[in-house]
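Encoded backbone
================
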Amino acid sequence: MVTCNSTEANPDLKQLRWVVYQVVFPVLVVVGVMANLLNLLVLSRPAMKGVSYRYLNHLAVSDLLYLLFNIPFCLEEFSKASQAQPMSRASAIYYSYIGIPVVNIFLSMSEYIVLWLSYDRCLAVCSPQKFSARQRFQVVRIRCAISLVITLFVYSLSPLRQTYSCDGGSSSNCCLKNNRFAEDTWYKGYEFFREFYSRFLPAFVITVFNVAIIVTLRRVKRERDSPDVINEARKERERRLVCLLMAITVFFYVTSFPSAIYKIIMFNDSWDFVPYFRAVADVLEVSGHVFNFFLYFLFSPDYRRVLVGLTGQQQANVYMSSSVCNM
């Protein structure tokens, strides 16, 4: 007979998990899905066809998929999984083998899209003679596709961490448990490599690119004390794009690094604060895929113009429809 572990003994932690995963998570997911759908609508307009905006379009798709696959973690079944309570076989299969790996795949994809965006801006600012908009347009999808293939390969062993067992032929009394591989040295090494690939490596590379951008812009600014062949409109556009990139990068650090730290300390079960830290890290991680819309709105005048234009067009359509109906 299968026996699940006892339920959460700490009532404060149980309440925190309920608030985080069944109140905060659903709100963030709903807001994030709506914001990213709006992002896709705006970024698909003809005025938003620049190279950087193509990366942002792919980022919105990745963020949207990440949020959609977070929906099962808002359900009561996930509360049972986190407290090692009996659940249905379908839920046990999903939370054991599918949920966390898939969510992390799109998490990593978003980070590598930001990395490619950083590289593209770095190349445009630091080596404009090597930057060709035509070539960059052609390779945006190729870069993202290659990143997806590599990420799928890196996460291919993630489902080996957990498994489940059920009470006889029952389909409603199944429990999650660690797989036998979880304690193997080779698997721990794999998990360390996976976290390095998905969080620390992109963070380091993005930092290098942004430092290069800042240094180059300062040098160019000093050289522009005399008349410059680059007009003011182009300089302002470049400045705003760099500000947007920097804001996305800073937000990336704030929202992603707590989860990376949790992945390191999660193996020490003797630290009582770890479950609380995980709840905070999870909220920050989801928030990172929700609020990119506000960054676009704040730092991109092109985005604001297109958004206002769409709103005005919708209002005009409503007015025309009402006028026709009143005829």
